[in-house]
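agent: user wants the structure for dTDP-4-dehydrorhamnose 3,5-epimerase from Rhodococcus tukisamuensis. delegating to structure tool.
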Amino acid sequence: MHVEKAELADVLVFRPEPFRDDRGLFTRTFDARVGEQVGVQAAAFIQDSQSRSMLGVIRGMHGRSGRGEAKLVRCANGAVHDVLVDIRRESPTFGAQQAFMLDDVEFRHLYVPPGFLHGFQALTPTADVCYRIDRPHDPAEDVAVAYDDPDLGIDWPLPVTLVSGRDARAGCWSDLLATL
Ligand SMILES: Cc1cn([C@H]2C[C@H](O)[C@@H](COP(=O)(O)OP(=O)(O)O[C@H]3O[C@@H](C)C(=O)[C@@H](O)[C@H]3O)O2)c(=O)[nH]c1=O
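agent: tool returned. relaying tokens verbatim.
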């Protein structure tokens, strides 16, 4: 498993080496020893989640107030266009965004430190995204910015087929900036 630094400060991309044969494939999805070498402690991730999205669905852009949460994100089935936005004022990449292809071919696995907005669009008929967080989910700390906010200007690859009611009502980037 290799680890690459993303363009966004402190974001890491874990790249496993899937083993394929006539049966299908085997891949490690994470290796605690590799994580430890780059400062990511596997034991910190205390809640695992999985979502399934249909083609064109967007979930995001979601963040967390307070001290935020760190995340490990991967796509176990299908493919997603995954987007991060750095919302850490003190960061050299504050306000910048980066997109990643997460799929069940390369199995890239993102480490996202606290202080980011996160969202994705499903690129396949179904896409299963698995993520682990280092604090229990608390809806009271949910922060959201509209996926189509013009100031954020995220370039989603497909027409949008569906978003949640919460995401449809999400606030704007400039309002979030005023709170940071
Ligand atoms: C995120 C989450 C949701 N839920 C519940 C709340 C709600 O009833 C139902 C669906 O929640 P949502 O509609 O908020 O799920 P979703 O829109 O998929 O939210 C997720 O989006 C991606 C982009 C992220 O980065 C995640 O951190 C998370 O915010 O599941 C939990 O119980 N635990 C959780 O950790």
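agent: one observation worth passing along. The radius of gyration is 16 Å.
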